[in-house]
């Protein structure tokens, strides 16, 4: 396996490499097919002060920037050609919200909710 990155989250997950289109999580002993569209992170909808001000629909979310995000190769391929459009059409000053909006618009997926992560592997 070719090692490209290591991401550790308190021992719960450790993504240690990429090989042939699959992200491998050594902590869980599972893998996620990166040829499918995945936008993985800690889902959020804004704090109470911002609720309703982020131009999100009732069922939309974004991956919070602090914990970081994982985008599959497929998501990157769908979003990359549209980055300039996304940068020219910002609704807020929150980069994590705008990234989520761009991914939703052009990749057709939103940030995984915690219950969805269990279904990925």
Automatic annotation (TrEMBL):
It is found in: Golgi apparatus, Golgi stack membrane. Keywords: Golgi apparatus, Membrane, Signal-anchor, Transferase, Transmembrane, Transmembrane helix. It is an enzyme of class 2 (transferase). It comes from the Eukaryota. InterPro entries: Chond_GalNAc, CS_glycosyltransferase. One of its GO terms (molecular function) is glucuronosyl-N-acetylgalactosaminyl-proteoglycan 4-beta-N-acetylgalactosaminyltransferase activity. One of its GO terms (cellular component) is Golgi cisterna membrane. It is a single-pass type II membrane protein. Its EC number is 2.4.1.-. The keyword RNA-binding does not apply. The keyword Transmembrane helix applies. Belongs to the chondroitin N-acetylgalactosaminyltransferase family. PANTHER family: CHONDROITIN SYNTHASE, HEXOSYLTRANSFERASE. This is Hexosyltransferase. It comes from Nezara viridula (Southern green stink bug).
